[in-house]
Amino acid sequence: MQELLEQFVTVADEVGRLQRGGSPESDVFRGFCEEGHYGGRSRPTGTRQGIYAVAPSGRFLASVNTTVKKRMVAMLREALARWQQLSPAERTLDPERATALAATRRFEDKYPEDGLVLAEYVRDLEAKDVKARDWRASAWNEDQVWFTKHEARGFAPVNLTVGHVHDVPERLVSRLARLHLVDVARGQTPAFRSNHVERAVLRSEVIRIEDGRVHLELRGETATRQRGRWVVLHRGGEKEAHERGVRTRLRGQAVWDTKSERFEEFRLLARGERWGATQYNGRPPTLEPTPIAFAFVLAPADHPRVAPAFFWHYVLRNGPREK
Amino acid sequence: MFSALLFVVSLAPQDPGAASRAAEPLPAIEDFAGEFARVLPGEAELAWRGVPWLSEFRRGLVLASEQDKPVLLWAMNGHPLGQT
């Protein structure tokens, strides 16, 4: 498998944006996806997710949507055989399209190089509703949280004296509560909105200072709750009255470097419970509160640079709010 | 009035008990390091990162053209290298 993969340039990307977006890369995707495994399909959904092999020109080679190694290998071999039959002109990316792709703008372009980027991981702390061999028993998910340099400063006290306690700005804690403390351990769910946030508090306390490095302890709480009518998979296709929510205690440790004005370390644990369900987050039949935990850690340099899942709800600020 | 009442009733949660249980205090986090480590994925859970995935299709197309290679695109609902 590894030898086969080395003959490709391997790319991972979000299918919804490619399928429905207005960018040149979306145009390329739409140009071949109907030749693939889900071409023409509209039920149960119209998704075109899967694994595609294509020439840089956009010419379709092969595709599959599987986790079975044998089927994957067969697809890769088929794709390479077709690739060998293409002329150079049939392989290569059109120069005009290359120019258009280079001009494409994505949220990833706003990656806060000098800010605070946290890798986020979430998993259930118990899964009594499913058998141990069921994938849901050990399900986990991930995301990443972005803060600009200006926003990152908001996690550190201005008064750098031992014992000083600082309230992290509510809008930053709310970003965590609305967009990141969401019940996605088993599948996707919508973000919460501002009016669903019942509590979003985080305080940082200066524990000690060594050579300009400020050691902080973080403590706080969050609570979000939404009531309304929506569809939940496996409970019929009709909208029903539902409630969903997540509430957590927060605890963490961080080290703020006053010289570089950056966090050298940042670990935050949010542990609590989730309840309710949405269409695709794999919760039924368990609508009852069950324990869940989220871990946030400074993203290492080689961490994938993908946009936060709910990037369209992000309002990144590079300075005090303009009046 | 009747329709307003119906609307309020229809917004009520299916399990009103869930809300009251959710009002109970959450236990404190005593073993921060241990609990934190328990949430992080293990090596086997991150094995797929052994493949050098680019994270944007636009970059993959350009690089593949430069290297005269085909593109292998893993496209999922939710970014495969992020939340899916």
Offer a quick outline of the entry:
Chain A has 323 residues and is α+β, with helices and mostly antiparallel strands.
What do these coordinates show?
The complex is a heterodimer of chains A (323) and B (84). Chain A has helices spanning 2-5, 15-20, 24-32, 69-84, 88-91, 95-102, 149-153, 170-180; strands at residues 9-14, 50-54, 60-64, 116-124, 140-147, 165-167, 197-210, 213-230, 240-257, 262-275, 290-298. Chain A is built from eight helices and eleven strands. In chain A, β9 (240-257) and β10 form a beta hairpin. Chain B is mainly alpha-helical and 84 residues long. The longest helix of chain B is centred in the C-terminal third of the chain and has 11 residues, at 57-67. Chain B is elongated, with a radius of gyration of 24 Å. Chain B starts with a helix and ends in an 8-residue tail after the last strand. In chain B, 29% of the residues are buried. The chains are: A alpha+beta (323), B mainly alpha (84). Chains A and B meet through β1, α2, α3, β2 and α4 of A and α2, α3, α4 and β1 of B. β1 of chain A pairs parallel with β1 (71-76) of chain B.
Largest interface, by Cβ-Cβ below 8 angstroms: which chains and how many residues each?
Answer: A-B, 91 and 56 residues
Uncertain stretches of 5 or more adjacent residues of chain A? none
- What oligomerization state is this entry in? heterodimer
Terminal CA distance of chain A reads: 57 Å
Number of helices of chain B: 4
Q: What is the SS-derived class of chain B?
A: mainly alpha
Number of helices of chain A: 8
pLDDT averaged over residues of chain A: 94
How would a crystallographer describe the biggest sheet of chain A? 8 strands, antiparallel
**What is the strand content of chain A?**
25-35%
Order of helices and strands of chain B: HHHHE
pLDDT < 50 stretches of chain B: 1-13
- Strands in their spatial order, largest beta sheet of chain A: 5-4-11-10-9-8-7-6
Helix share bin of chain A: 10-25%
Order of helices and strands of chain A: HEHHEEHHHEEHEHEEEEE
